[in-house]
């Protein structure tokens, strides 16, 4: 890492991961699962920055019901976090970021890195290089988001329209527009145009910059968060936010609350092997497939199968002659779906 203010990683661990049911459950969501390696996604996220210079110990913001899992998973990889902050209720990412920024602002108003705990970054060196690129701009008051170069005309992600490069900030571009998830034709146009990047949900900005902007744009959020910290209670190694105060905050993402409205939004385009692991198809995409395009985990017997993701954490699964399916078996339930319907698993959970 280049010289500059120390970055405090803030790891957001509040997601439910419903599209990875039946492995991911409300009580044990995907960030705690070893889906892409022997380590959980939370552990991979923490290790990505823990072993590099220029980073302080992380702050983890998580659901109160997951506090012991967070603490134990960090302990087993020898990471001692600055704080584990417990949300009494989910309020999306803008309030979670405000809590962390308030905790840092008095002693360290400098850089603040926000990382979802349920994403994969295969190229750690590229990730750290992107942070180096973004760091000076963030120190100068820009609010940096990282845009992933699209590999396909994806309709499941939001996009960032890149504007002009910032003066004296090579590799950093003004955000022209945040774009919602497009239809297929629009996604194809974005892909061919070369000026749109996938919105990764990773950010780098100074704590004081974020607090100033959210104070201006969303005063109810910052008021609720200030009160939630003032009335917070220490509990063993955890900080419990005041339930009544925090629950009063509007539930908004950083994009909706701040990034889409600020004139400080900038983007660093990256190619870092990013994947949000938003469905079983994503795990098939990044998995080590066999000659027939099957990705297999666990006690599986596969004969004449092709293009399928087959996983069991329970009984032997025998698959014969299937094609382009997702088959996931647990001790208590089994999911079978065409691979191109894997994004719709949330409907099963809702039912």
Q: What attributes does this structure have?
A:
single chain, 351 residues, alpha/beta, Spore Coat Polysaccharide Biosynthesis Protein SpsA, Chain A, 2 domains, five-stranded mixed β-barrel, 11 helices, 27% strand
Description:
The protein is an alpha/beta fold. It has 2 domains: 8-275, Spore Coat Polysaccharide Biosynthesis Protein SpsA, Chain A (Alpha-Beta Complex), CATH 3.90.550.10; 280-350, no CATH class. It has 11 helices and 19 strands. The chain has helices spanning 41-50, 67-75, 93-105, 124-139, 184-193, 207-217, 219-230, 243-247, 254-259, 280-286, 345-350, and strands spanning 8-13, 59-63, 83-87, 111-116, 120-121, 143-148, 159-165, 173-179, 196-206, 233-235, 238-240, 265-270, 274-275, 295-297, 300-303, 309-312, 317-320, 325-329, 334-338. It has a 5-stranded mixed barrel. Strands 14-16-18-19 form a 4-stranded mixed beta sheet, with helices on one face. A two-stranded antiparallel ribbon has the order 5-13. It is globular, with a radius of gyration of 21 Å.
Short description:
By secondary structure, the chain is of the alpha/beta class.
Structural class: alpha/beta
Q: Topology as H/E string?
A: EHEHEHEEHEEEHEHHEEHHEEHEEEEEEH
CATH architecture descriptor name of the largest domain: Alpha-Beta Complex
Radius of gyration (CA) equals 21 Å
CATH C-level name of the largest domain: Alpha Beta
Give average pLDDT, whole number: 92
Q: How many strands in all?
A: 19
Any chance you could write out the topology, listing elements then pairs?
Elements: E1 8-13, H1 41-50, E2 59-63, H2 67-75, E3 83-87, H3 93-105, E4 111-116, E5 120-121, H4 124-139, E6 143-148, E7 159-165, E8 173-179, H5 184-193, E9 196-206, H6 207-217, H7 219-230, E10 233-235, E11 238-240, H8 243-247, H9 254-259, E12 265-270, E13 274-275, H10 280-286, E14 295-297, E15 300-303, E16 309-312, E17 317-320, E18 325-329, E19 334-338, H11 345-350
Parallel strand pairs: 1-2, 1-4, 2-3, 3-11, 6-12, 14-16, 15-17, 16-18
Antiparallel strand pairs: 4-9, 5-13, 6-9, 7-8, 7-9, 8-12, 10-11, 18-19
Helix pairs in contact: 3-6, 3-7, 6-7
């Amino acid at each position: 890492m280049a010289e500059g203010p120390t970055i405090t990683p803030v790891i957001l661990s509040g997601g439910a991961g419903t599209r990875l049911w039946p492995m991911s459950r409300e009580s044990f969501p995907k960030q705690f699962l070893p889906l892409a390696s022997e380590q959980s996604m939370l552990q991979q996220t923490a290790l990505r920055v823990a072993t590099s210079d220029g980073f302080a110990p992380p702050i983890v913001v998580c659901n109160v019901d997951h506090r012991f899992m967070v603490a134990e998973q960090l302990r087993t990889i020898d990471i001692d976090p600055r704080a584990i902050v417990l949300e009494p209720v989910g309020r999306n990412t803008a309030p979670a970021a405000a809590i962390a920024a308030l905790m840092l602002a008095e002693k360290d108003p400098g850089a603040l890195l926000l990382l979802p705990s349920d994403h994969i970054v295969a190229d750690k060196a590229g990730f750290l290089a992107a942070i180096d690129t973004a760091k000076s701009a963030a120190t100068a008051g820009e609010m940096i988001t990282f845009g992933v170069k699209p590999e396909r005309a994806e309709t499941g992600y939001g996009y960032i329209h890149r504007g002009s490069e910032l003066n004296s900030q090579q590799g950093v571009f003004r955000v022209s527009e945040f774009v919602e998830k497009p239809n297929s034709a629009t996604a194809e146009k974005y892909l061919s145009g070369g000026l749109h990047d996938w919105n990764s949900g990773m950010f780098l900005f100074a704590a004081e910059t974020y607090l100033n902007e959210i104070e201006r744009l969303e005063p109810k959020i910052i008021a609720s968060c200030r009160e939630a910290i003032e009335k917070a209670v220490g509990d063993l190694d955890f900080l419990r936010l005041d339930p009544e105060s925090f629950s009063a905050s509007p539930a908004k993402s950083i994009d909706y609350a701040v990034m889409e409205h600020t004139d400080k939004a900038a983007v660093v385009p990256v190619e870092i092997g990013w994947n949000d692991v938003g469905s079983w198809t994503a795990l098939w995409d990044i998995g080590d497939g066999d000659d027939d395009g099957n990705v297999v985990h666990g006690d599986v017997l596969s004969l004449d199968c092709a293009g399928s993701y087959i996983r069991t954490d329970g009984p032997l699964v025998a698959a014969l002659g299937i094609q382009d399916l997702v088959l996931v078996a647990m001790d208590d339930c089994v999911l079978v779906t065409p691979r191109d319907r894997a994004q719709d698993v949330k409907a099963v959970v809702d039912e």
